[in-house]
Amino acid sequence: MFEFPVLVGDIGGTNARFALVEAKGAAPRVLSHEATAGHPDPSSAIRAALAKGGEAPAPRSAILAIAGRVDGPAVQLTNAHWVIAGERIARDFGLSSAVVVNDYVPVAAGAAGIAPDDLTVIGPARPEAQGARLVLGPGTGFGAAALVPYADRLAIVSTEAGHTEFGPTDAFEEQVWHAVERVEGRVTVEALLSGPGLARLHAAVHQVRSGSPRDKLDPAAITRAGLAAEDPHAAETLALFARLLGRACGDLALTFLATGGVYIGGGIAPRIVRVLQAGGFREAFERKAPFAQMMAQIPTSVITVHDPALTGLAALASEGAAFVYHGQIWRAAG
């Protein structure tokens, strides 16, 4: 399906990461990480990445994963200004084909063969778990996809789960929900379980506990202060974030019957593993009556490997026949 070398790219709302897969089965050779805000369009970022590749050969095809819904020949990123069009990129670089997929499609593909050393287990370890798997992650936004066995192949089901509604389950959360900043009038999973969401939660927790509003802080600063116990509101926010993440993971695990495990990626979870392991995450994940016993058997892990999407994109380039997935596909005529 792909002509090698294959350009692979993981394009998020903040950064775009590019690599080359020079031959079938080869590991991705990282070219560069480019800030989306630093380039007017994806072709500009790709040119910069290829220029940093030194002696790397020119790509002949491409597969790009983007933070957005892939539903037409040109796709607007959800949290950035770029418009991604596979045909335009292919013509700009003389490629024989270009494929664009949702950003959690390759993370799901990578989960099919992820090594135990690339995971940090949260809760009970169950290496024998079988069935559908779920991959998700809070970062600039919130992505999720399922990996479902389908005959002798694996179907990757991308979602827009981050844009589903989210509600409170106790009196404290109800106070937080009244105080939290809305996004277009809504409180969604992504509005809370993301970098910007962490800032919204912290501001709301501060208002509930102190009785006075405050400006939103940088999510990284909240994480540092919470982990170091320098700010009690930040520490409480991280604990609340972990519980909400556990609840969202549990809901999606029930949706897909993900008995094979839940794998958490994104930029936030690896930084707060200690908070996730403290217990609130798993308690919220398992509290799904009448299926609490089933939920207790589903393993949950944080993906700790760097750039898991690039590894998954390399798997899609080299082992594409093993997977069924939706994407935007362009091929040169003839």
UniProtKB/TrEMBL annotation:
One of its GO terms (biological process) is glycolytic process. SUPFAM superfamilies: Actin-like ATPase domain. One of its GO terms (cellular component) is cytosol. Keywords: Kinase, Transferase. Pfam families: Glucokinase. GO terms for molecular function: ATP binding; D-glucose binding; glucokinase activity. Belongs to the bacterial glucokinase family. This is Glucokinase. The gene is glk.
